[in-house]
Amino acid sequence: MSFKYFYLLSNKLVSYFFIIFNFNLTYQFFSSYIKFIHFNLYYITDHMTGNSNILNAIENLKNGKFILIYDADGREEETDLVIGSQFITPAVIRTMRTDGGGLICTTVDYDTQLRLGLPYLSELFSEMGGKYGVLNKLIPNDIPYDEISSFSVTINHRKTFTGITDNDRALTISELSNLITTVSNLENGHAQKLFGAQFRAPGHVHLLNASKNLLSSRKGHTELATAITIMAGLVPSATICEMMDNNGKARDKNSAKEYAQEHELVFLEGYEIIKAWQKWSK
Q1: Which of 18, 182, 205, 231 is the most buried (most CB within 10 A)?
Q2: If you average pLDDT over each of 13-17, 215-219, 260-264, which comes out highest?
Q3: Which listed residue (105, 109, 168, 272) is catalytic?
Q4: 263 catalytic residue (yes or no)
Q5: CA-to-CA distance for 90 and 25, rounded, in angstroms?
Q6: What are the residues facing 67 on neighbouring strands?
Q7: What is the pLDDT of residues 50-102, one digit of tens each?
Q8: Among 127, 145, 190, 258, which one carries the catalytic annotation?
Q9: What pLDDT is attached to residue 147?
């Protein structure tokens, strides 16, 4: 291992401890920094093998850029445009519409789900099936690529008009990202009150619930995108959109890779994120 990488790591360590001791960070932040230091150790080793794909993806995310994530062969076999929700602008929504073409959705980490009381849509169907029998018949129990759909409710920010425009969806997503940061320390139902005060449903932003133990059971785009935003130290929410082709199908992996190369974006496969997450979350 070269001196260069030891030097870079030591500089980071000094910076982290300076921040901790001078600004009295909480235990949670301290834990995050320890994980981040461990993560850098992993990537220094990983870099020496020539595999810097995850590191490049994380840097792009931290700089507010898109990355592309392909879930897996034998699963959906789809590539999503992915960006940290905190960086959403009307221009980003427009790119997702034109270059992605699929459904624009925003992921929510498990801790925030609990604080906001966000259900899975299939759970709502089950609970309301007694009153509206058709909902029982619509329960998605035959998904060909997974056991459960990650879809939750749809929302609009209360300051939006119809909620569907680029401006409106950008406002909804960026304000949701702000809310996720705010409610991380709220208990006893205060988070739900704040959520209800700022948002209404139904709306035009589809929320996706990331599973409890990320990437241990469900390994979809919801979990993959949420995991990499957490590893990047961002707000634990990603906004994602499937990439469609003009032939009526999803854009295939090779075509998505070409798009990534043309636009100087990082293309990741799900297994790369899973491997990194297993190292990071130890």
Answers
A1: 205
A2: 260-264
A3: 105
A4: no
A5: 34
A6: 82, 266
A7: 458 999 999 999 999 999 999 999 999 999 999 999 999 999 999 999 999 99
A8: 145
A9: 86
